[in-house]
Amino acid sequence: MLKSKKFWVIAIASASFLCVAACAVCVVVTGIGQVGYSMLASSIRTGEGQLAPDFEASTLDGGTVKLSELRGKPVILSFGASWCPDCQLEAPILQKLAEDYSNIQIVMVDTKEDVQLVRSFVSKYGLTFTVALDQDGSIARQYLIYAIPSVYFIDQDGVIKKRFIEKIDQSQLDQALEAIGAR
Q1: Contact 154, 160 (CB under 8 A)
Q2: In the chain, which residue ranges form alpha helices assigned H by DSSP?
Q3: Residue 168's pLDDT is what?
């Protein structure tokens, strides 16, 4: 009986060790350890009521945009891509906002797309606002973007007031514009 108990204790301990070791290998191989920690830290910084994480990116027109330099005006920060159907629906709405609200800075962040595709998208929808190029996806990772469009409404002090993932209706848009002092 004693040998049987000892066998099971050793078997369970060995299985537990192997499970922990396998998980550790997965973390190292996939890089989840570092990414997971940084994603957790970023999620604390990307919610409503938090200061929007700063970034600097090249723009489609050859310049650069740095989010912190836009303080003083409300900002609509939209993450999207040319192939995204909801982004295609959102583009004319953002353009209309750019035309109707000169006190708002609109920045669309396009992630990991060929510049020519982005140029075609901008041309097709007649977009005149800033389009930032997130070629390596680092800005999207910083904001934990997992679905597009993801839109952040940031007040003049750089604080995220509203965040919407995928579709946004007129009522939500009106509330978000109010929250960032655009109306």
Answers
A1: yes
A2: 2-30, 32-45, 85-100, 115-125, 138-142, 170-179
A3: 84
